[in-house]
Fold:
Amino acid sequence: MISLDDTGVGLRYSWGAVDTISWADLGTLRSIEDGIPEALSEPMQPVWDGLTEAIRSAALTRLEIVQEILTGYRDGHPAFAREGEPRAPFGPGFGVSEHQQCIAMAKQLNLEAKFDRNLQRRVADGDLKSGGVSEQTIRRWVREFKRGGLHALIDGRALRPTNSYDRIDQHYRDAAIKVLDSLDGDRSTISIEEIKRQTDESPWIRRRLELLDSDQGLVGP
Structure:
């Protein structure tokens, strides 16, 4: 908020745009409880605390992309400018339309993805359909950020209720199912520990563990 007078409230958004909203357009509070106005939106902190580190990282990466397009700065403000920012053509200072900026950003991200070994490995392993991102996707992120801020950039699947089974890697589930299918039914019981041991011995699972160790420098290439 940058001003408050008889005409209304002056606002400056993180991407630099300035707007004045009249008192008539501000709307009304939903309710007042114990003398305190009820929030017009749900608090972000409980949602954020319930996300995995990977989901948070993905949302913050999207936020950097959107903010660079809207403001020219990945952290959203000149006061937090990183080295080399603003970079052409991103931000309002280069006279490039938002649509063209999204196209340029998609090209840049796709070029970076080609040289990201970990990302390309995940694509090869089937964890990702593609390592790149389309300009339509980036335009959607921009629209959603304007509508709902950081909350709108969180992967919607992470916000839907799931059971513990859904959190298990699909490849691991497939390996475990193969172990169960191999049982001949002669034994009435088999320990969970034995099923887990056989699953862990799956060639695909062993390869995944070796790759993870390699990424962390625990084994040689």
